[in-house]
């Protein structure tokens, strides 16, 4: 997929606006007595599947949103630097994969909400895209992210009560899939140097 890169300032502003939107949504949720939480994913309920797309916009209180805010902004901006089309595609794949996994693996009667599945998708996308693109800058960035945020990957395991490891796992898988879909042809499209003939 060919796409125009986004300038760092524009990416930062765009993600700041999106993050501000999450805080506004949480404010409205608090004012409504958490009525918006019903738009989270209702596990194992067929009529709860559309909430896959609304659940990432909702959080279980200010602390939940605050813990997601920095990685949401940072990872989202880094993905956006690669272009709007890739950002949209990577985000959509991550949201769908995270939502379906949470819907399928979470015990019935549970509501899953939060942006962490999307965040895990962005994280793994940034970590593995260099495998297919073979761009040194992306590989170096992946190593830096792994060094700083690598501990987050433990979130795909059922280690903390009340935390949806299912959404994390699904998002992480989605990020890997998105990186493969978006970057596997990068090397094939890159022009190669003409062969040199040697004569003895």
Q: Which stretches are poorly predicted, pLDDT < 50 over at least 5 residues?
A: none
Count of strand segments: 2
Profile the largest sheet: 2 strands, antiparallel
Strand order of the largest sheet: 1-2
Average residue-wise pLDDT:
91
Q: What is the gyration radius calculated from CA atoms?
A: 19 Å
CATH architectural category = Up-down Bundle
Briefly note the CATH topology name: Rhomboid-like fold
Account of the 3D structure:
The chain has 200 residues and is mainly alpha-helical. The protein has one domain: Rhomboid-like (Rhomboid-like fold, Up-down Bundle). The chain has seven helices and two strands; from the N terminus they run αβααβαααα. The chain has helices at 8-31, 62-80, 84-105, 116-133, 136-149, 165-183, 186-189, and strands at 41-42, 111-112. Strands 1-2 form a two-stranded antiparallel sheet. The termini are far apart. The model has no long low-confidence stretch (mean pLDDT 91). It comes from Microlunatus antarcticus. InterPro entries: Peptidase_S54_rhomboid_dom (IPR022764), Rhomboid-like_sf (IPR035952), Rhomboid_protease_S54 (IPR050925).
